Amino acid sequence: MAYSPTVTSSPLMFLYELPTSGAISFSDFCNDLTVNKRHVIDIPAATQARANIRSVLKDNKRTDHERKDFLQLVKVRTLSHVATRGAQMILRCRCTQLFEEYLPYLRGIIECLAHDEIALKSEPFPGLQAELAFSLLTYAFSLSNLARTTVISLGRYEFDRAITEADRKAKDEQLNIAVDFLCRASGIYSYVADTVIPQWETQMKAAPTGFEIPPELSSEVNTALAKLALADAQTLAIRKYLSKAAFDSNIVPGPPLPVSHPSPSLIAKMHLECTSLYASARSLVKTVGTRKRSSSSPDSSGEVSSDLRKYLADQISLHSALSHKWLGVEAGEKGGSQRGGEAVGYMTLAKKELQELKDNGRGISIAKGGEKDVKDQLKQKIADELDSVNVFHKYYKKANDTIHFRPIPSQADLQAKIPTGVMAIATKKYVPRPPAFGPGSVAYIQSQAAAVTLNEGKASPPPPDDTTTRSAPVGTYAGAGAYF
To answer: How many angstroms separate the CA atoms of 375 and 314, rounded?
Structure first.
């Protein structure tokens, strides 16, 4: 099969290892202070909602990728047309649904505590705000993993010469769904960083001796995760933008670009923004100092996962190379004779960076002990991109050597001409659902509104008596209405 120089299959996102939680009964430390004990059902319901999550997370640890015993658990409508990849995808769907059910119950307990409707018999450490933070984080991890599994299920569809236009567009729409999952995850990470963690830090009292704040409860780490998810989402958006052009190039390979190809300058700027987001995330992660590894949990430590740090470094290198590639394509396709040397220069730079990635075995850090087939796909991604750059480099070098005769700019001159990045998508702001019960809940607001209406009705004066306020009719005789 002839090779297509327009490569779009995106590198796969980071795979988060979903944690498992210990069993908690809110009834053990929550005391209902209301006169009529109206939360006597709500508190156990919160315990049950949390237990449901714990059960699915434990299944997530045990389930084999090939088992498909949990299809009946899926109720997420947006995924009804997405091909599943074994029970892992089913469980991730279930996780996201269960978190949407549990979080309002947790918020209900927190709001009742704030309004003295519930009192704590003992303070669970590190506190309910920390429980909220960890729950939201696991929810965001599930969304990110769900996006990743969705992308894996699509395969390299844009290179399938037999695919119909309708099927290709349907798979493009599934990419949009994965983008939506990542944008939602980014919003959750930002909410944890900007709202939940500051509240937890304000309310947290003296910590037990030896307690070390885990990186998950760091605003810097959560802000970094928000940027990472947004960069991953933009990577998928790039793939979607190039889908039609990749298919057309697959049929008629080689430069020049097909008519359906989006602006190379736009694609380059999108890659540049990805590079900036990953770099910013990596800088934030590096601010979290190395902490002593917990003896009770050998797999955890006070530092950010080395797999995550390497993933960020790899993505910075990859997107930097791809931005240079597309800046070279822009110069070669749109720049005319004056930019012939610039096109060769950018392609030479991209070729060098991709070759380093390939030779160093980088670009395959996706998860702790990641899946072999996925690692192979990522290796293939780098090899394909290098082949693509070689095609463009050879084409533009020949044109410059035989037609344009322009000097090749130095790397410093090329770097000086690099534009700023462009975002094509945006974080979806996380808006918490109302508490399931207590102050702020729908039932509470309705009861308050009803009470206000009743009070206003009692305070209103009675309607005027029609017989006392109505004026006596005035006659039509001479002098009627006049009194002497």
So the answer is: 13
Contacts of 158 (CB under 8 A, 6+ apart): 8, 9, 168, 239, 242, 243, 246, 247, 250
Tell me how far apart the alpha carbons of residues 111 and 434 are, in angstroms, rounded to a whole number: 10
The residue-averaged pLDDT of 166-183 equals 95
Query: How far, in Å, CA of 429 to CA of 425, rounded?
Result: 12
Look at residue 368 in the predicted model and tell me its pLDDT. Answer: 47
Separation of alpha carbons 132 and 198, rounded Å? 12
Give the separation between CA 317 and CA 362, rounded to whole angstroms.
Answer: 9
What whole-number distance in Å separates Cα of residue 295 and Cα of residue 163? 53
Q: What is the DSSP string of 396-436?
A: HHHHIIIII-PPPPPHHHHHHT------SS------PPPPS
Amino acid, single-letter form, for residue 303: E
CA 4 → CA 246, 286, 413, 430, distances in Å? 7, 38, 30, 40
Mean pLDDT of 313-323: 95
Cα distance between residue 293 and residue 221, in whole Å: 18
Q: Which two tokens stand for residue 160?
A: 């399938």
Q: Judge if pTM exceeds 0.70.
A: yes
- Mean pLDDT across the chain, nearest whole number? 82
CB 10 within 8 A of CB 238: yes
CB 13 within 8 A of CB 239: no
The CA–CA distances, whole Å, from 223 to 26, 70, 84, 193 equal 30, 34, 30, 6
Q: Label residue 479 by pLDDT band (50, 70, 90).
A: very low
CA angle 397, 357, 171 (to 5 degrees): 85
Question: How many CB atoms neighbour CB 31 within 10 A?
Answer: 11
Of 17-21, 130-134, 389-393, the least confident: 17-21
Helix or strand (DSSP H, E) at 31: strand 30-32
6 CA to centre of own chain = 27
Vertex 337, ends 335 and 343: CA angle to 5°?
Answer: 55
SS3 118: strand
Say how far apart CA 176 and CA 100 lie, in whole Å.
Answer: 21
